[in-house]
Amino acid sequence: MSQKYNQAKRKFAIKNDTGELVELGQFLRDAFKGILSIKREWFVLFDENGKYMRTQETLPYGVKPKYRTPDLIIFKKTERTNSSVIMEKPLFCLEDDGSIHHVHVEDTLNRNEDYKNAEIDLVIVDKPNIKVSIFDEAFSKCETLIKQKLGN
What we know:
alpha+beta, Trna Endonuclease, Chain: A, domain 1
């Protein structure tokens, strides 16, 4: 009986890693001070051909384009002009993957393909394979990509 309820609980459970993502985003901001702007769980919108259109905090009204909501979207920090920030194409997106991605492999592969088609690099922190901590893993992967893209 208990196994039945646990299955239902897992099926209807909502991903609740907000605290961890906030800490990870803040850690990356601090680690790469002055370089990065980070948005948590914003939308990456794709056109009908799967190419990158834009990022935004909410979905547009009306016809919904194809989208993904990565855990963190990392941008090169831009200067503010007239109290607004120009959002360029992301440097990369970061996904904090738990063991569910080893079960729903097709969904994970489709996600990875969407980012590849949109020419957005995807950093994946695979929790079951972390050696030290999520912060060390994310820092190492992000540092390599940032050096590659920005030369810092």
